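Title: Prediction job returns without error message
Component: structure pipeline
Severity: low
Priority: P3
Assignee: unassigned

Description:
Job completed but the reporter wants confirmation the result is attached to the right record. Sequence as submitted:
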Amino acid sequence: MVNYYSHAMINKEDGFNIRLINKQLAVDERQVTLDEWVLDRFRDKLKKAAVLTTRFGKPLVLYRRTIEEFEFAGEDEVCTLIDEKYALVQVYTHGGFIPLSFQEQYVFSLDDFPKWVMKRSRDLVLQCLEAIDELLSMG
């Protein structure tokens, strides 16, 4: 656990201006640097995988996750790398008495997609990287 505030200084002239001096700032700078490094590596691998998906003529499933499940019906999200330019995220419902239908679709450029995924979940980033590594090991 990180101590967020080592001490605070209050500007007594206006009484409201608080300047926090802490060690968390250094940790945050390292985290931002690490996140940027991961995003750069993710973009590089994504572009290499995109070339292979185009060559194989088959989209690559980067991740699949269940959003909601009720008895025999569910709502899932699936992300695929469709070609050398785009990643596609689709949310769909299925099963039971519900006909298969797409609720949402997002199309991302390969430059924008890694940042969007990182904002959503680091676990999704790891799933994407695993799928890419598996494809790259075959190619």
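Comment from assignee: result matches the submitted record. Confidence is low (pLDDT under 50) at residues 1-27.
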